[in-house]
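ok so for the tutorial part 2 we go from a plain amino acid sequence to predicted structure tokens. step 1 is just haveing the sequence, like this:
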Amino acid sequence: MSHDWYNLDELSRQLGRDRREIEKLVNRGRIPGRKIAGDWQFHPTEITHWLEQEMREYTDRELAVLEQSHRSMEFNDPHPVAALLRVETVQVPLEARTKRSVLEGLVELAGRTWEVWQPASLLTAIQDREAVLSTAFENGVAIPHPRNPQPDVLGSSVIAFGRTLSGLPFGAPNRALTDLFFLVVCRDSRTHLHVLARLGRMLQNPDFLAELRSCEDSVSAYHAICAADRRIVG
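step 2 — the prediction. this is what the tokens look like for a chain of 234 residues:
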């Protein structure tokens, strides 16, 4: 089979789940796939987009399994968020009052690493993703990111974080306001899903969100995020 597609066995390994379970979900239309010459095949990009939505409802255990099956090849670190976040890519407070200004501010933060080669292209890719479906959650957190990996505009994957002084409309369910923003920009899908899974596990802890909202400056927010990442895997 072409390396551009997964078969059922490859998909089950990618997801860390039993092949029979995957086949049932595919037959019920729960996983995007198509039959080619009588066999189910799956495009990696479609699976990544499907996973992004499914992960919103995953338990900690399910996210941990996803982490294991999508470990990044870009770095060898059990703490993926701490590995890609830097003090200079954290801003508290983030001076922004609109969705666009938040995204512009986050891209500017990411650019402080000198790993963003084409900031305008990256901003457009992030805005295009938001136009498809907001990355905001009802708990006041958003994780903006491009729809596809960005190897042509990045030297290495980057995470940036900003907290606005008050919540603002970002497209969250039930019109909830958003004040915590994690920008995730990665060079490949494995790193992207690895980071999203870890962030999902961190954000399931309400104490972590309260701690972030109590941080008075960028340095304390940086340390709070890294500590939360390390608590997942000590």
